[in-house]
Design goal:
248 residues, alpha+beta, Structural Genomics Hypothetical 15.5 Kd Protein In mrcA-pckA Intergenic Region, Chain A, Alpha-Beta Plaits, 9-stranded mixed sheet, 4-stranded antiparallel sheet, 6 helices, 15 strands, 28% strand, elongated, binds uracil
């Protein structure tokens, strides 16, 4: 991995600040000053110091967020060779895995870790961590449909827990869809949906139950942790404060 990428993804400083620090000799690799941002490092062995502070090696506990694009499977390996989220996590130890899952066509915040206890706690239903989604749906849900969604609708043979739903926008123009084949003319409503359950295809099935098709879905938050301006397809490490806030 490139030295600047290793340090920047650890969250210590922005990419630009890291590059400047390297050029100014404020970064060492195994005790030697390195002035070239693209200097190749071994993420599992090299000891990197940024302004005298050790940048934690990536072999220890890892917690990171990916802004998942549509079209990537949430799995570590696909037998049919389709793109998976792991393809977007280059230069990282193979021991990390996704915490929960997003559908193939769902975008947004996906956590990864190599900390099994953390992953189990995050996914355990008893913790009821809020997950916030933006959903673009065909047509404008009526007040009655919104109330039904808020109170719970029948999916997978059971009733969904109460949800928070807010309509944010209605557009006559086609909304950009993750899958261009699914572009639709007509009215598209954009809603914010907050749920704490993780049933399979839950948000899509909830809207289906009230007669609307989700044409784009993006998870923006898990608890208080948000995607911020992380570009699509990119990942970054969580800061210690972010990790602490997620500990349940
Ligand atoms: N709900 C869905 O329908 N899909 C997801 O990927 C996540 C939540």
């Amino acid at each position: 991995m490139r030295l600047e990428k290793y340090i920047a993804t650890s969250g210590i400083a922005s990419r630009r600040a890291v590059k400047r620090a390297i050029r100014e000799g404020r970064v060492t690799v195994n005790g030697t000053e390195i002035f070239i941002p693209g200097h190749p490092i071994d993420v599992e062995r090299d000891c990197i110091e940024f302004e005298g502070k050790r940048v934690e090696p990536l072999t220890e506990r890892i917690y990171l967020m990916l802004n998942k694009p549509a079209g990537y499977l949430t799995t570590r390996r696909d037998e049919r060779g389709r793109p998976t989220v792991m393809d977007l996590l280059t230069d990282l130890p193979k021991s990390i895995y996704p915490v929960g899952r997003l559908d193939l066509e769902t975008e947004g915040l996906l956590l990864f870790t190599n900390d099994g206890n953390f992953a189990n706690r995050m996914m355990h239903p008893s913790h009821e961590i809020d997950k916030t989604y933006l959903a673009w749906v065909n047509g404008v849900p009526s007040q009655r449909a919104l109330e039904r969604l808020r109170n719970g609708v029948a999916i997978h043979g059971g009733k969904t827990a109460p949800a928070k739903i807010k309509q944010l926008d209605v557009k006559a123009a086609p909304m950009p869809s993750a899958n261009s084949n699914k572009r639709k003319n007509g009215i598209v409503a954009k809603l914010r949906v907050i749920i704490h359950e993780g049933k399979k295809r839950q948000v899509r099935l909830m809207f289906k139950a009230v007669g609307h098709r989700v044409i784009r879905l993006k998870r923006t938050h898990i608890g208080e942790l948000g995607l911020g301006n992380l570009p699509q397809g990119q990942y970054r490490f969580l800061t210690p404060t972010e990790i602490a806030k997620l500990q349940v």
